[in-house]
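Hi F.,

I've been meaning to write this up properly since the lab meeting, where we talked about keeping a consistent format for the predictions we share between groups. The idea is simple: the sequence comes first, exactly as it goes in, then the structure tokens exactly as they come out, then a line or two of notes. No screenshots and no reformatting. I'm using this chain as the first example so we have something concrete to point to.
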Amino acid sequence: MSKKVLLNDVGVVAANVYFTGSCDLACTYCFQPKIKSHMKETNDKIIEWISSGKMAKDILEVFGPRTTDIAFWGGEPSMNLRPLVPVLEDYYKYFPELKQFSWSSNFASERSLESTKEFTDRVIELNLKYNHPVKIDLQISIDGVPEINDKNRIGSSADRISEHTTAFVKWVNEDPLRIETLPSIHFKGTQSAESLSWLNTGDNLLKHYKYFDHMRAGWEEAGYKVFPRGAEVLTFVYPGNYTQKDGYVLKEITEKLYSEEFQHQKWECSYPPSFDTQVSGRVYSLWDFLSRGIKKTDTYELLGHTTCSAGRSCIGLDYKGKIHWCQGTYFFDDETQDYIEKNDLVTDFEAKQGFSFRNFDKYINDIIVTDVKENPLLTDRSLSIARGFAKNFSLKDQYWDLMIGELASAGLISPCFKEDKWKQLAKMYFLFSGACPVDNVWEFGSIWTTSTSQVKLILNGAFEMILDHYRRNVYK
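Output, unedited:
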């Protein structure tokens, strides 16, 4: 019998886990089927998985003892931090190379604030006990000014998130050990075509950035050493159903961000060295990585560039022992699928994106989700997908050649992408940074085939401008 292969053995050291099945918000762009009764049942099972210590054992069994990063994913991860606190010591025993816990919180409630404090203090206690400095990487999810955030994130309030963030920052800065444990706190804002149009009107873009800068200035004036500095406050709904017109809007926004009016401001909230969008952040990160040269051992690090909020790895584990190629499939288990079909549900996200969750499980089972017990040799399915996505470029390369070439010839993206040099640059971006395999499955039933939506958004002037700015100001 063949030896069982751990994900650590093939270079995966970051574990993403399905940490919560509940959320206290109802964001208009969320892909999760928000079924309250079912979410509670699912979350109760996840809490048992966490509090019993089985989550730690499953991560050890599937990923291995060399796991360095553990990311919590789900609706609102902070809702389940408290059940983890009593068993947190197991993670220090099982994973001697553990470096970081990470998650994204909406900070919309007192519960998310207080549970994050409790978890942080327990991490500090264990860091001292084991002389093992594990860090916390915390992303605070806020879409921006109230005109955007409170419209997109139903049940949320931009001002309340700001107040809770300030309270948390104050609390962190009261203790040097908290400062050391939480070196990275950052904002993330998600934008749709509608909010991009709003931002491109009048002084709204400046108002958006000043909203974040006002918070930064207050924290800096208070003498705080740790507070949200870097932020991608212009990330985009995926795939988004963007049009060529939306691409022109993003181009105009990018022009404004690189203009002298913005450049002379000392913005601390955006990604240095300039104002940032999701595209520019990924361009900088990807090209920095590629400039160092790619080795075979870098395959899974390179795959990290295809992630969103997942952190260093999309590959994750759920409470049933199933491995997921992407955290986007956590919510589509058998029970959810049955409930959707039985009640003939259509979510807001389905209606907007133009596809159906019906029969979605038939696409993902054994393709990007596999059962550990049924398939102990992980390379058979899950890892073959991961390896294929990273190494087998023939189908993807041909697809992107055809897509970009046809869109350029049809006048739906910038004509420069008819040229091979520009086409190659665009292909590199989408192969490693701009295409989500699960969204591809949603729309086309294949991880290889990508929607034209993001292409029209990005390749109508913004991409070229970002690359030129990167060449002149960043990569020297």
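Notes:
The two ends are 53 Å apart (CA to CA).
Residues 269-273, 296-307, 374-386 have pLDDT under 50 and may be disordered.

If this format works for you, I'll send the rest the same way.

G.
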